[in-house]
Amino acid sequence: AQSVTQPDIHITVSEGASLELRCNYSYGATPYLFWYVQSPGQGLQLLLKYFSGDTLVQGIKGFEAEFKRSQSSFNLRKPSVHWSDAAEYFCAVAPSGGYNKLIFGAGTRLAVHP
Amino acid sequence: KAGVTQTPRYLIKTRGQQVTLSCSPISGHRSVSWYQQTPGQGLQFLFEYFSETQRNKGNFPGRFSGRQFSNSRSEMNVSTLELGDSALYLCASSLAGRQAGEQYFGPGTRLTVT
Q1: Among A73, B25, B62, B100, which residue is least crowded by beta carbons within 10 Å?
Q2: Hey, is the C-beta of A46 within 8 angstroms of any chain B C-beta?
Q3: Is B54 left (phi over 0), alpha (psi -120 to 50) or beta?
Q4: Which phi and psi (to 5°) does residue A60 adopt?
């Protein structure tokens, strides 16, 4: 069965520091991969997606992610974190042929210290 | 363009009752998916509707049902409510047809069952 693992439940970084959030997926073929962000009391906002092609994808708010097939990973990065980036981040996969069914990881809660 | 809207935003129900939640997708989007978010289970896929047909279903009991209207608006219904149904219910819409695409989420309906 397909699954998504986000190993870090909580991460705290200082404002201005770099950030990397980890995501590993389990799936036989190359799935469609997504990162979403959720602020308290809000819905989910799409940060970026990978369908095919260039393995380094750029998203909104200065985020990027790199797909590594050999490691079954799709880690999210940002070179310099802002206090407004504090939120919960979810990695998700959509199995090919699975229409719009998303399988989410457990999420990583990011705290930003001034 | 208006985003995904969900009504009501908050709901309190008693065990044994039933509830109906509504979702209006982004104009032009024909796919509507529903997700349940709880602290214990995280984000879980309920079902997806496309052109008034359910084409994907998650692992939830039959008490959870949905439908989609010709204008792509969708409703989900939960009958015989249980305490464990307390959750944030998120709706997402997408342009995508057969393959997965970007999903845009609404703010959610917070259901509390007492």
Answers
A1: B62
A2: yes
A3: beta
A4: -85, 165
Pairs of residues, one from chain A and one from chain B, whose beta carbons lie less than 8 Å apart: 73
Per-residue pLDDT of B55-98, as tens digits, reads 889 999 999 999 999 999 999 999 999 999 999 999 999 987 66
SS3 B58: coil
Would you say B78 and B59 are in contact if contact means Cβ atoms under 8 Å apart? no
Q: Please tell me the distance from the alpha carbon of residue A48 to that of residue A21, in angstroms, as a whole number.
A: 13
Confidence grade of residue B42 (pLDDT, cut at 50, 70, 90): very high
Nearest CB to A96 within list B99, B102, B107: B99
Parallel, antiparallel or unpaired: strands A64-68 and A73-78: antiparallel
Q: How far is B10 from chain A (nearest CA, A)?
A: 11
